[in-house]
Design goal:
globular; 333 residues; alpha+beta; 2 domains; five-stranded antiparallel sheet; Arc Repressor Mutant, subunit A; Putative AraC-family transcriptional regulator; Homeodomain-like_sf
């Protein structure tokens, strides 16, 4: 176990790990490795806190797998020095940043710019990979491929897809690097190899996250989903409980209903309303998994996520998760 971060720009990775049931120890660890002005408060049962983190520091990037074991609320002021990405491995995370609400899960990452406060509702069922990239490193990567200087901080999109396209590949690269660097005598831990991995993580993020420069240089263009699809996905993730119709979503996307449906089938793999229903079901499942059975009810949670017909909701829930909603509530955690 290392005692602290490496010097920025160094090519020698450093592995730092902690497992504790002491919230103060967990706070100190996260503040030292990530950001000083960070507040971490348990909102679930403090006795169930089982913080675990495996973190690798490699020059301008910090990658860690983190979980708390109980529900927490994390707040932080402006990041200032870094861009940040959260990649849930399990569960769903609710994030608010610069007025945008994002529900991140294993299909969708949350992205943070260096400006604007952040608030996270992080359930105990959610384990994630946290990726911190120094501000200058990502901006230099984009600037190198452009004929114009980028605006700092860059106006990045609030989330990106992890199911297909460049986001899926980048997330797999990050997971593999973390796995390699946590093990002994890994090839990736040698400075020359580590430097190449580091550069791939930074350049891959530049290709995965949405930014206003994506259409400028051919070298930075990736297989992005059409903006029409992204607009519809963004509003669904921002407020999944709203009673959207297919016409509503087509209007947001700026295309006709048939065009939107065909675009979703081609680029998402399912119709828009099917995707919305899955998003809502996953939200209900995440909330029931951490709720107190004595205080919460299935109907209240279902209504909160936009389900108005409880019979159809229960059938869809069982089809997706293999158990009833009430079973999830009774056997939470």
């Amino acid at each position: 176990m290392a005692s602290g971060p490496v010097t920025p720009g160094a090519d020698t990775p450093v592995h730092v790990a902690l497992r504790t049931t002491d919230v103060d120890e967990a706070r100190a660890f996260c503040r030292r490795l990530y950001y000083g002005p960070m507040r971490i408060e348990p909102v679930g049962d403090p006795a169930r806190l089982e913080f675990s983190a495996d973190v690798v520091l490699l020059g301008p990037i910090t990658i860690g797998e983190v979980g708390y074991g109980t529900d927490i609320r994390l707040t932080i002021g402006e990041l200032e020095t870094s861009y940040h990405v959260l990649l849930p491995l399990t569960g769903m995370l609710r994030s608010r940043h610069r007025g945008a609400v994002v529900y991140a899960d294993p299909t969708r990452a949350a992205v943070y710019r260096p400006s604007g406060d952040i608030e996270l509702d992080w359930p105990g069922t959610c384990r994630l990979i946290s990726v911190k990239v120094e501000r200058g490193a990502l901006e230099r990567e984009l600037d190198a491929g452009l004929d114009q200087r980028v605006i700092s901080p860059m106006p990045l999109g609030a989330s990106f897809d992890l199911v297909d396209g460049p986001g899926r590949t980048w997330a797999a690269l990050v997971r593999l690097l973390l796995s390699e660097l946590r093990g002994p005598d890994a090839l990736a831990s040698r400075p020359r190899m580590a430097a190449r991995w580091r550069d791939m993580v930074v350049s891959g993020l530049a290709l995965s996250v949405e930014h206003p420069y994506g259409q400028e240089p051919a070298g930075l263009q990736g297989p992005y989903r059409p903006r029409t699809v992204k607009r519809a996905l963004d509003v669904m993730h921002a407020e999944p409980w709203r009673p959207y119709t297919i016409t509503d979503l087509a209007t947001v996307a700026g295309v006709g209903v048939r065009v939107l449906q065909e675009s979703f089938r081609q680029h998402v793999g399912m119709p828009p309303l099917t995707y919305l229903r899955r998003l809502r079901l996953d939200g209900v499942h995440a909330e029931l998994s951490r709720a107190d059975p004595g205080r919460a009810s299935v109907s209240e949670v279902a209504y909160r996520w936009g389900f108005t017909h409880l019979g159809r909701f229960a059938g869809a829930y069982r089809e997706r998760f293999g158990v009833s909603p009430s079973h999830t509530l009774r056997h939470r955690g």
